Amino acid sequence: xxxxxxxxxxxxxxxxxxxxxxxxxxxxxxxxxxxxxxxxxxxxxxxxxxxxxxxxxxxxxxxxxxxxxxxxxxxxxxxxxxxxxxxxxxxxxxxxxxxxxxxxxxxxxxxxxxxxxxxxxxxxxxxxxxxxxxxxxxxxxxxxxxxxxxxxxxxxxxxxxxxxxxxxxxxxxxxxxxxxxxxxxxxxxxxxxxxxxxxxxxxxxxxxxxxxxxxxxxxxxxxxxxxxxxxxxxxxxxxxxxxxxxxxxxxxxxxxxxxxxxxxxxxxxxxxxxxxxxxxxxxxxxxxxxxxxxxx
Length: 296
Description:
With 296 residues, the protein is mostly beta strands. It has one domain (7-295): Beta-galactosidase, Chain A, domain 5. 1% of the residues lie in helices and 45% in strands. The strands form 8 sheets. An 8-stranded antiparallel β-sheet has the order 10-11-12-13-28-24-23-17, with no helix packed on it. The mean pLDDT is 97.
């Protein structure tokens, strides 16, 4: 079995995506053969969370500890070097394929009750390609007996077609910056200033920052982040519930070097402790939200 399990290819016209059985990750997205996300080989593990689905929380939980109904919870420390829990509980889970067609696939998994997570949740992710790109819809259902807070995120590394990351310009639909230290909040969100400087190309800009206040422009209904370069452009859009975005620019993506992750999130880092923008789903109830990627 490959490290990411079965590969689900979906195609519509010139648009092609590949989704993995393990973690329901987005491994590839191409339009007419041009890549719009950073990919990785089918026989490799996703580098630095590439394409991952982040459920039931995105980003980090400080020391893996949080409180639910007055009871202390201790999650596994999946970021051991820093001593935190990171990116949810399903990144290494085998998803079950549900409805499938040439241009769509729906994958299902269960967040089982476990140390640090007390309430079972069913989750599904539906990937659909069309002439306008890719749409990803997350659904979460509480199959337990008590309400539970949660968050949802994703970890795609987008690319402006054939443009180098350093020659690309990132434009975010965000209004605030959450100061972080070691990936964890150290103060309240503040208006975006000149640090980090996002006014030009990404060359020389090192990012691992959380931005908030993501909202649609006047007259629009969707949040839109864009990466543009001399050889193309890409837009990551999201419904307004994805009011946060983490941007990360590692310099060691295999076969690429500099890359940029633009991660839509419903809540900021350590939200299980701060409570900021946490979602809550009651027993028997369902939540859903969508985001997507398209060439521009």
